């Protein structure tokens, strides 16, 4: 489920999932009378769904299994969040400063949507959430972070060696992903072939799958690209020069940057066709200096060191709560 936790081709068109209608209204659960709606779940699920839709164009039972697991994980997380929010409003009755919310939204746009505001707006629309609703979701997230930090306020401070180790482990995940780029090869098979009136999306998908099979058996990528690819890279054997991450769709970019060098990936589906990719080289944006993220790193270390305490806290909150799951 790593794609769910860190939501991550060579295509500038929206994925098919963006245009598909989904049920986003209704109640998913109630926690102490506070409602968790289906569109809240859908919002948090959207980046994962986009990547999964691209990677599994035939869907099927395995796809449904992944989606069900992701939905359950998100619902569990939202229930836990509501428990903590109830504690916050009961004991503190405070608010998160507007500038902190603005900063977090900017971070999400940068890290989840390649710093592309239009992609962010598109994702909100796909999930059935307005910017105002997303702002409230972001405020809730920051409240939960503050409440968790408060639970460990009196804990033993992390050692410098622990802080450095945690930073070394996670600094690449905290990098400026708008500085990412990659080189590779691609083959693009459109869903509609103007030179073949008998071609259908199903036959084109089958063709793309057949090409992937040949590539994995050792056939020459450039030769197959010249023969089958229907884009401007075909004459160069599918060679794609250094391309900024920000030129890619957010879902495809996340998939490609997580793919091993040299691995054949695909077919990946978008609204117009199927893409087969081999990533040849990746470039990463700069990681922040430890001094810039030290407070965040310290909080992560405290959370790890005090997991048992946190688990007891959440267990107590659940034991005192009325939780009614509707889905």
UniProtKB/TrEMBL annotation:
The keyword Ribonucleoprotein does not apply. The keyword Transcription does not apply. It holds the Pfam family Rotamase. Its EC number is 5.2.1.8. Residues 1-21 form the signal peptide. Residues 179-281 form the PpiC domain. It is an enzyme of class 5 (isomerase). GO terms for molecular function: peptidyl-prolyl cis-trans isomerase activity. It catalyses: [protein]-peptidylproline (omega=180) = [protein]-peptidylproline (omega=0). It comes from the Bacteria. Keywords: Isomerase, Rotamase, Signal. PANTHER family: FOLDASE PROTEIN PRSA, PEPTIDYLPROLYL ISOMERASE. This is peptidylprolyl isomerase. It comes from Oceaniferula marina.
């Amino acid at each position: 489920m790593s794609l769910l936790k860190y939501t991550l081709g060579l295509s500038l068109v929206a994925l098919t999932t963006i245009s598909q209608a989904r049920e986003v209204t209704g109640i998913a659960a109630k926690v102490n009378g506070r409602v968790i709606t289906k569109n809240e779940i859908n919002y948090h699920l959207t980046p994962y769904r986009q990547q999964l839709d691209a990677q599994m164009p035939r869907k099927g039972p395995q796809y449904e299994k992944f989606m069900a697991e992701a939905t359950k994980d998100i619902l569990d997380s939202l229930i836990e969040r509501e428990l903590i929010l109830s504690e916050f409003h009961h004991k503190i009755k405070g608010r998160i400063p507007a500038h902190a919310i603005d900063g977090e939204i900017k971070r999400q746009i940068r890290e989840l949507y390649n710093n592309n505001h239009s992609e962010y707006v598109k994702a909100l629309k796909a999930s059935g959430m307005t910017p105002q609703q997303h702002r409230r979701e972001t405020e809730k997230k920051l409240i939960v972070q503050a409440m968790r930090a408060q639970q460990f306020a009196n804990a033993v401070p992390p050692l410098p060696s622990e802080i450095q180790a945690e930073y070394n482990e996670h600094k690449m995940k905290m990098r400026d992903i708008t500085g990412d780029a990659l080189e590779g090869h691609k083959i693009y098979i459109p869903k509609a072939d103007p030179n073949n009136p008998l071609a259908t999306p199903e036959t084109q998908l089958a063709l793309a799958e057949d090409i992937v099979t040949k590539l994995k058996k050792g056939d020459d990528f450039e030769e197959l690209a010249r023969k089958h690819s229907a884009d401007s890279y075909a004459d160069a054997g599918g060679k794609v020069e250094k391309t900024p991450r920000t030129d890619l769709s957010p879902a495809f970019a996340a998939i490609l940057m997580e793919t091993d060098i040299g691995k054949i990936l695909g077919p990946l589906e978008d609204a117009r066709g199927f893409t087969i990719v081999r990533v040849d080289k990746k470039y990463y944006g700069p990681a922040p200096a430890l001094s810039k993220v030290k407070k965040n790193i310290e909080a992560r270390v405290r959370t790890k060191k005090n997991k048992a305490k946190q688990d007891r806290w959440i267990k107590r909150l659940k034991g005192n709560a009325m939780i009614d799951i509707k889905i």
